[in-house]
Structure formats: structure tokens, C-alpha cells
Write a structure and sequence with these properties.
It contains seven helices and 23 strands. By secondary structure, the chain is of the alpha+beta class.
């Protein structure tokens, strides 16, 4: 038994180690193209080959060594990239990289490797061959060196608040095409590499588990469909423009740029912004946030002051239909419509999220949702379960109340006589 148990433990350890090796290594695609032909035979990659870091480093070094002079190496990096991003198409069969298709159509050589382990770590080894490594954040400020043997790494921006993945890949596609075209016109001999740090479909093993938070635009566009108000310590977001209803007259409010101000006192914080209702009229909305006196450590959105009329002298105080309260460092979120009401006016926000008293107003904190714990579906489930439980209990009681015969007739004996009481 001891030998069998030891053998089982050895096999289990080997299986766990194999799984760890399989999932610990993360593979991402690498797309490469060259502006000019090398001096002799080109180095190409076998289709569908999976490259380790060392194999890819050797492959890329051999590729660069085939050039007479050291070329300029442009590396465009995404935070997440996968093979599915290159094969994606919309309904009209348009890909996410229309500019890149045009650029590579005129390239001297194109290579696509679907699986490479840590390609950026492999490219770092070019420093040992005399290449200089430069990291660039802003593509518009890129200055291409006159000397040869430079690796310029451009980290592409993350998605904006109103972008899905195909949209921001198309934006990056335009940036890559523009930078590459400028580099070819100024330097001439360029090798471009487009890759990612992590796969789009596999969570990095060493990354800490974090909550997903809503990404926000730095500056809200005036014609955006959503509403975003941002100051040094307050964030307010709605997925659609606010809707103002005055005695049946509904108006869509459009945020005027550069009109957001804030005020902080010992008892409250406020945010004021101007909105237009037509080409000539505008109103002001002022949001008031207070530290809760009854519940320390909580904040509340007590009311919105609606200023309108000539010179915004008419003031109407709009109060929320249900209380808006959340712990400090938490945001308040409500996926259903959030309505602020007065006597003859109401203001409606769709998918409303807000947070005051912030230290770094870049993203919302964890959401404190408006939905109560016992929602209608939960009440329905409890009601149906209770009825079924009562039926089952009633059935068990009926079964337990069944009485069996305790006296039996003997054909050789006296006939059984059962009294009325029994």
C-alpha cells in the first residue's frame, strides 16, 4: 500500500507541474513586416509553429542579420492581443486593421507568428547586439534617429470609455500606419513588429485579481451620447444625456464644454455644470454631496439644484425618489432610471453612477448598487418555494396520520366486534 501511495503522489506531482508549465507560459501573436528586402536570402517562419522566448529571439536576430545595415526596429505593443483580433470581421466583412492591410500589401516581407512566448522579453536581447532601446508614449512626438540600430517601442493606449474592442483596434491601426509611414519616409530601412503583452483570452497568472471598473474619458466630448462630469474629487456618469421634464415639456440636456466647477466645504462638496436645452438657452445643475451625520463613513447625494430662467435666477431643488447613499471610497450605481423630482419638474438619468470625496478621480470605486437585497425575482422564488414546502409538509402530515389495522379476524375464533368509540 505504501508503494502504491508513493507512486500515486509522484504521478500527481508530475501532473501539477505539467499543468503549471502549460498555464504559466502565455503565448501571444506577433505580426512583422519589412520596408525593404535584405541583402540575401530572407528568413521566414514555418506556419503554425509555437515559439519559445529563446526560439523567437534567435529567429529575429537571424532576420536582422540578413540586412546589410542595422534597420530601425519599430515595436507596437498592445496590453492584450490575440489571434482572434486579426481574424475578426463585422457584418460588412471589414476587419479591425484596414490601414495595416494596405501597409503590408506593399511591404517587402510579411511574417505572422500566432504563438510566441513573451516576445518583448526576446526583443530585449537586441541590446546585447548593439541596438539602443527607446520607449515612446506619444506617437505624435516620435523623433526617428538618424543613426542605425535603434529599437523604438510604442505602447498603444488603452480603450476609451466609449470604445469597444474593434473600435480601439481600428484607432491603433491608424496610429501604426501613420507612424510606420513617417518612419519609412525619414529612415527608409524599417522592420515593424506588432504584438501584445498578454493574450486577450487568458488572464495573466501573475496579475492580481482586481474588480472591473468603468473606464472613463479624460475629457467628455460635447456630442457624446453619454454624460461625464469630472472634477478633482467628484465623478458623475450617465450612459445617456439627462432628460428634463417640466410640466410635460421634455428636454434633452447637452453638456457645455469647460463649464464644470466644484466647491468643497467642511460639510459638503458640490459640482456645477452648464447644459444647453436649445441653441440659445442654457441651464445650470448643481449636485450637492454631504457626509452622512447619522451614519459616519457614508456620503449622500441630497439634491440637485436646477437653475434656469433669465440669468439662471429661478432655482428649483430636485430631490431623488429614493435615497442615494454609499460608503466613502465606494461609488453609487443604479442600472435603472434615477429620477430627481420637484413639484412640476423631474430630471432623469439612465444607468447613473456617481462618487464624491475621491483622491484620484480616474475610475469609480467598487459600486454600491441601488437594487435592494430582496428583489422581485427573489420574492417570487421565495413565494413559490414556500407554497411547495407547505404542500410537502401537508402531504407528510397526511401520510403520517394514516392508521393501520391493529386487530385481525380469526376464522377459528370469535368474531371481532368493534365498538363505535374505536
Amino acid at each position: 500500500m505504501a508503494a502504491i501511495r508513493m507512486s500515486f503522489e509522484i504521478v500527481l506531482c508530475c501532473f501539477v507541474a505539467l499543468c503549471g508549465c502549460s498555464y504559466g507560459a502565455e503565448f501571444v501573436p506577433v505580426f512583422m513586416w519589412e520596408s525593404s528586402k535584405p541583402t540575401y536570402l530572407q528568413i521566414t517562419s514555418p506556419a503554425l509553429k509555437k515559439y519559445s522566448t529563446d526560439d523567437f529571439a534567435d529567429f529575429f536576430v537571424n532576420k536582422l542579420s540578413s540586412f546589410g545595415k542595422k534597420p530601425l526596429v519599430l515595436v507596437f505593443t498592445e496590453e492584450n492581443l490575440s489571434v482572434e483580433d486579426f481574424s475578426w470581421q463585422d457584418v460588412a466583412e471589414n476587419s479591425a486593421f484596414p490601414h495595416l492591410e494596405g501597409v503590408t500589401a506593399t511591404a517587402a516581407n510579411v511574417d505572422f507568428i500566432p504563438s510566441v512566448e513573451s516576445p518583448l522579453r526576446a526583443l530585449r536581447r537586441l541590446e546585447k547586439l548593439g541596438y539602443q532601446w527607446e520607449t515612446v508614449r506619444h506617437p505624435d512626438k516620435m523623433k526617428f534617429p538618424e543613426h542605425i540600430g535603434v529599437v523604438m517601442v510604442l505602447k498603444l493606449e488603452d480603450a476609451r470609455g466609449d470604445e469597444d474592442r474593434p473600435d480601439y483596434l481600428r484607432r491603433h491601426d491608424s496610429v501604426i500606419s501613420s507612424v510606420y509611414s513617417r518612419a519609412v519616409s525619414q529612415v527608409g530601412n524599417v522592420v515593424a513588429v506588432y504584438t501584445g503583452r498578454h493574450s486577450s483570452w487568458i488572464e495573466p497568472e501573475n496579475e492580481p485579481v482586481v474588480h472591473r471598473v468603468r473606464r472613463l474619458l479624460v475629457n467628455p466630448a460635447p456630442n457624446a451620447t453619454h454624460m461625464l462630469l469630472k472634477t478633482d474629487n467628484i465623478l458623475i456618469y450617465a450612459s445617456d444625456k439627462p432628460l428634463l421634464n417640466e410640466a410635460g415639456d421634455k428636454k434633452v440636456l447637452m453638456l457645455l464644454p469647460d463649464t464644470i466647477t466644484n466647491k468643497t466645504t467642511a460639510t459638503y462638496q458640490s459640482l456645477t455644470a452648464k447644459f444647453s436645452t436649445s441653441t440659445t438657452n442654457y441651464i445650470r445643475l448643481q449636485f450637492f454631496f454631504y457626509n452622512s451625520t447619522s451614519s459616519p463613513g457614508y456620503w449622500s447625494l441630497e439634491n440637485i439644484t436646477y437653475m434656469h430662467g433669465a440669468g439662471n435666477t429661478t432655482v428649483t431643488v430636485l430631490r431623488p425618489e429614493s435615497s442615494i447613499v454609499a460608503p466613502v471610497m465606494f461609488s453609487y450605481h443604479c442600472s435603472s432610471n434615477t429620477v430627481f423630482k420637484a413639484v412640476n419638474s423631474s430630471l432623469t438619468f439612465e444607468n447613473f453612477q456617481v462618487q464624491p470625496y475621491m483622491e484620484k478621480p480616474t475610475t469609480f470605486g467598487d459600486a454600491y448598487n441601488c437594487e435592494l437585497f430582496f428583489t422581485p425575482p427573489i420574492w417570487s422564488g421565495l413565494f413559490v418555494t414556500s407554497i411547495l414546502a407547505l404542500i410537502m409538509i401537508w402531504g407528510l402530515i397526511m401520510i403520517m396520520d394514516i392508521r393501520t389495522m391493529d386487530q385481525f379476524d380469526d376464522p377459528k375464533g370469535k368474531t371481532i366486534t368493534i365498538s363505535v368509540s374505536e
